[in-house]
Design a protein that fits this description.
This protein is α+β, with helices and mostly antiparallel strands. About 65% of the residues lie in helices and about 15% in strands. It has one domain. It starts with a strand and ends with a helix.
């Protein structure tokens, strides 16, 4: 179960506690969202900047989660 420890409204950040399994599930969900966004981009060529930026955001989030999971191993 996800627990939150703090919210910093000024900086727009939240501190969470999750298990490795929950983190892996979250990363898999982000990976699926990135795959769906890739399909959307390919189906709607030429793609617009907003859609490309969304894909970049998903990929960056996925990479960040992957690094955190690696630190747990």
């Amino acid at each position: 179960m996800v627990k939150w420890f703090g919210i910093d409204k000024l900086n727009g950040t939240v501190t969470l506690e999750v298990t490795k399994t929950e983190l892996t599930n979250l990363m898999n969900s982000v990976d699926n969202m990135a795959d769906k966004q890739k399909r959307t981009l390919l189906e709607n060529l030429p793609s617009d900047e907003v859609d490309r930026r969304k894909l970049d955001d998903y990929e960056a989030l996925k990479e960040g989660l992957r690094k955190v999971i690696e630190m747990l191993d």
